[in-house]
Amino acid sequence: MQNLRILIVEGNLKEENQSFTDGGIKTHTESLKDSISYFTNKIEIDVANPSSDKNINERVKDLRKYDGMIWGGSSLNIYNDTIEIRRQLDFMKECQKKIKNILAICWGMQVAVTVAGGTVKRCLKGAHRGIAHQIKINQQGLRHPIYKNKDPIFNTPAFNFDEVSTLPEGATLLSSNEINKVMGIHFKAGESNIWGIQYHPEITYDKMISLIHFRTDRLLNNRAFIDQKEINEHVKVIETENRLTNKDSRMRELENWLNIFKKN
How many whole angstroms separate alpha carbon 25 and alpha carbon 159? Predict the structure, then answer.
C-alpha cells in the first residue's frame, strides 16, 4: 500500500456535518478515516464534498491520480431533485470515468447505481435504524473478494430508508436481507470496478446509537419509531449486538477492499 492515494467523498451536506460536530458526533468522513487507520497508516487521503466544494470542477481534472475512492453515507434521498444531489451525481459520473476502484457505501452505492442506470426508491419493507439483521451472502457473494472471511449470515451497522430497486446492467447481486434485497453488489461502470454495500462496516454501533438519539425528533416525525419507548428498546438491541460483535469481523468488507491494493 506504499504511496497509495485514496479519495473519500463526503455525501452529507456541510450543514448536516456541522450539526454532527455540534452534537459531538463524528462525520462519516471522520469515521472512515478512523476505520482505515485501523488497518494502515500508509495511505494518502484526500476528501471531496461535491455538494459544497467550490473547486469541485478543478478536482475532476485530477481524479486519475487516485488509486481508489470510497463514497460514504448521507441523510439525502436520491430521488429528491436538488442542486446538491445533482452535483453529486455529476461528480460520480466523472469518477466512474477515471477511478479504477470504488467502494460505494450506502448513499454512495445509491449514487453509483443511479449514475450507472439503476434506480433507487423508498424501501417498502421498512428501514434499517442503526442495525441490519440477518444479511445473507448468496453464492455469487461467497465467491466475491468483498466477503472473504465474512460469516455467510451477519448483522451490521446500517441506517437507511431507501433501497436499490433496479440494478445497473451487468451488476451482480451479492447479499440480501428481509428489508433490502440489494445489500451488496458488484458492477462495472466506465473505468470503475465498483463494490457497493447498503450498510456501514466503517461506522461503530456506538455512533449508530448516538445518531438515533441525535435524530429522535426526525425519526418520530417520519414514523420510523412509534414513541420513545420503542426507541429505547431498539437501542438495547443494538447495545447487545455491540457487545457480541468483533471489530475485525464488522469491518471485513473495508479490509478486503483495501487488500485489493496489496496485489497491485
Answer: 15
Q: Going by C-beta distance under 8 Å and a sequence separation of 6 or more, which residues neighbour residue 194?
A: 96, 102, 103, 104, 112, 116, 185, 186, 187, 188
- CB contact set of 215 (below 8 Å; sequence gap of 6+): none
Q: What is the pLDDT of residue 124?
A: 93
Whether this prediction's pTM lies above 0.70 is answered by yes
Residue 123 has a pLDDT of 96
Burial letters 191-229, b for 16+ CB under 10 A, else e: ebebbbbbbbbbbbbebbbbbbebbeeebeeeebbeeee
Hey, is 66 helix, strand or coil? coil
pLDDT digits (tens, 9 = 90+) for 66-86: 999 999 999 999 999 899 999
Q: Tell me if residue 98 falls in helix, strand or coil.
A: helix
Nearest to 31 by CA among 169, 166, 202, 227: 202
Q: Where are the domains of the chain?
A: 4-262
Q: Torsions phi, psi of 125, nearest 5?
A: -105, 10
CATH topology of domain 4-262: Rossmann fold (3.40.50)
CB 261 within 8 A of CB 67: yes
Q: What is the per-residue pLDDT for 191? A: 96
What are the grid coordinates assigned to 18, written together? 456541522
